[in-house]
Amino acid sequence: MAQQDTDQQRAGVLPVDDEGYVIDTEDCEEREAAWRERGTSRPITVVGNPVLHKECKDVTDFGDELQQLVADMFASQRTAEGVGLAANQIGVDLKVFVYDCPDDEGVRHTGVVCNPKLLELPAEKRRLDDSNEGCLSVPTAYAPLARPDYAEVTGQDEKGNPIRVRGTGYFARCLQHETDHLYGYLYIDRLSKRERKDALRQMAENEPRYPVVAND
């Protein structure tokens, strides 16, 4: 077991806790900067772009192209001042998202998840939080949306190793939001028709603070 842990560290996997969840709260500043400095910021795709409205393809190649994509995603996320970014938000049809997000206690979490699957919580463990939610692909718009205040995602890291990520509060919302993206759902798809219309009105009335890809 100790040897396996050593091998994982050499492979670039985040350390894990006693329950097998990644420890994504250590060296966040250094890890985020290392990714971002290798990347190129790309414009953000917005609601209406077809790549946002279909399930993305599974990541099967964990080579150099994926590493560059992840670097570009961290760079793009920083430019847009976001806390999470899915690949299709920069026009890439692959199941991968990055995050650099605080939880409700202000603890920073930074990492990469490929091929995420969200754990379905039993009813007795579902405590809903109806805080406001926004999205880089629906710029300047916000709406309250009830989501569970705990989330757990399984998937793979950028090297293809299996991982488990969990979060509470705002970070739980981030994990659910980004996983949704990769299966073709925006947060506004979970709103009522009236709330969705209001969010799109907000978007139309304001200018995004970061570069976006205009829909033809």
Automatic annotation (TrEMBL):
Record keywords: Hydrolase, Iron, Metal-binding, Protein biosynthesis
GO molecular-function term, one example from the UniProt record: peptide deformylase activity
Active site: 178
Ligase found in the keyword field: no
Binding positions (Fe cation): 135, 177, 181
Cofactor binding comment, as recorded: Binds 1 Fe(2+) ion.
Family: Belongs to the polypeptide deformylase family.
PANTHER family referenced in this protein's UniProt entry, alphabetically: PEPTIDE DEFORMYLASE, PEPTIDE DEFORMYLASE, MITOCHONDRIAL
Biological function: Removes the formyl group from the N-terminal Met of newly synthesized proteins. Requires at least a dipeptide for an efficient rate of reaction. N-terminal L-methionine is a prerequisite for activity but the enzyme has broad specificity at other positions.
Protein known as: Peptide deformylase
Organism, scientific name: Streptomyces africanus
Lineage, broadest ranks: Bacteria, Bacillati, Actinomycetota, Actinomycetes, Kitasatosporales
